[in-house]
Amino acid sequence: MQPPSEYVRVRVEDEIFNVEKQMLVENSEYFRALFESGMRECAQEEIQLQGLPARGFRVMLKVLGESQPILDREEILDAVECAAFLLVKPLTEHLIFTISSANCILMLQAAGIYGLFDLIHASAQFIRDVYANVREDLSFLSEDQLDYIESLSPSAYVAVTTHSPSAGHLDDFSRTICYLDEVENHWATLTSLPDKASTCLAGVTVLDNNIYIVGGVDGLSKQIVKPSFCYNTERNSWSEFPSLQHPRYNLTLTGHNGCLFAVGGMCRNTVLALVEKYQVASSTWSFSACLPRPGAGVACARTMGRIFVCLWLPLDTTDVYEYRSRRDEWVLVTTLKRQQSYGHCMVAHQDNLYVMRNGPADDFLRCMIDCFNLTRQQWTALPGQYVNSKGALFTAAIRGDTVFTVNRMLTLMYNIHEDKWKPAKERAGFPRSGSMHAFLLRLPKNRLPTRQQN
């Protein structure tokens, strides 16, 4: 049966919405079953939804129209009800993307009422990560909800430095991936890299709580490393997976919606605009839309279910592009013009992108940060200079409302408050030399010391 393409009027409470049937069929299991059932309602020009809030339906239509509204308390409650009743996966995903310290308790409660397990799980994970900050509000939760939250592991801050492939007969004790033990204030070993793996100019990311390593070079021969590697956190084991169709190094690797994206990079000293997509479920690589221009070591961040990259231009200009996976296209979001010397990274928190860059060439150890708000479409410069006595901060990850930044001598933690970063704690630096990859990972409780399990 060909899906309908005409419009239908949907009455919700006292409001009427004129909606394309095709959009409803593609995104709502409820409407798909309704329109493909052959029942009388299939031919009706108007459908009435009993007992659903119009406000929630309106939010659903905004999300299906590729808008990403920031929701208040009432909108969250109504949207959760619509997502559960109409079985709208994109709306559930949007709710997950917008979980914050301000609404995580509400999200968990509402998801529990309507049985949205994906939202229950995501809310509980977020609460586990910000447990101390929301402790006073936990009294609103049931005992079962509290038990479920406490059964989860918090995200650990994980780092690995530059390593080339190692001969199998050599014992290279530094070829380790480590996590920050925040209680004992030291970096503990999580796992050792496979002998053939390289983190030198490789792409490293986390997808579905597993570590992926793609590309890179052998530091001795400068040859591109073709094998790709995955670390399964639950099984504590490594495996190889298919190599890129176009091997390269100095690429950026990011994960989204069950797929890896290998962005840009270099091959034979040529900077590339190539982007390849790896579907984990089918173990296959395919080419996606190329970057608007070649880029190596591209800064990348994910937030609100979206992928963003920074591409440099001469004259101190950085363009921020978004990759829109549904249409397989790159769209220019904004442009930043600031005096800067070399290198930067980008992290994201809710609807804010933070671009971290060095200061002017005569004082490049300063770390300057600019913030772009996706909702307001505005740039602001964060006050102050984010720097320590040992050098600039260029490796960072965000857990809840806390930013972790690390170098060899020091790990600095900041609390994000009203788009500003406020220094919170200092922890041990990562005791390895070389460029670092840092990310968050949920370690199984049986891998953690007892003191860190609660």
How much helicity do the residues have? 10-25%
Structural class: alpha+beta
CATH superfamily of the largest domain: Kelch-type beta propeller
Distance between the termini: 53 Å
Strand content: 35-45%
Major β-sheet annotation: 4 strands, antiparallel
Flag low-confidence runs.
Answer: 387-392
Strand order of the largest sheet: 6-5-4-31
Computed Rg: 23 Å
CATH fold title of the largest domain: Neuraminidase
Overall pLDDT confidence: 89
Shape: globular
For the record, the CATH architecture of the largest domain stands as 6 Propeller
Give the total of domains: 2
Question: What is the CATH C-level name of the largest domain?
Answer: Mainly Beta
For the secondary structure, the number of strands is 31
Number of helices: 8
What features would you describe in this structure?
The chain is α+β, with helices and mostly antiparallel strands. The chain folds into 2 domains: 7-150, Potassium Channel Kv1.1, Chain A; 155-452, Kelch-type beta propeller (Neuraminidase). The chain has 8 helices and 31 strands. The protein has helices at 21-27, 29-35, 54-64, 73-86, 89-97, 104-114, 117-129, 143-150; strands spanning 7-12, 15-20, 46-49, 155-161, 176-181, 186-192, 202-207, 210-215, 228-232, 237-241, 252-256, 259-263, 266-267, 270-271, 275-279, 284-287, 299-303, 306-313, 317-324, 329-337, 344-349, 352-358, 367-373, 378-381, 387-388, 391-392, 396-399, 402-406, 410-417, 420-428, 436-442. A 4-stranded antiparallel sheet has the order 6-5-4-31, with no helix packed on it. A 4-stranded antiparallel sheet has the order 7-8-9-10, with no helix packed on it. The chain has a 4-stranded antiparallel sheet with strand order 11-12-15-16, with no helix packed on it. Helix 1 crosses helix 2. The longest helix is centred in the N-terminal third of the chain and has 14 residues, at 73-86. It is globular, with a radius of gyration of 23 Å. The N and C termini lie far apart (53 Å).
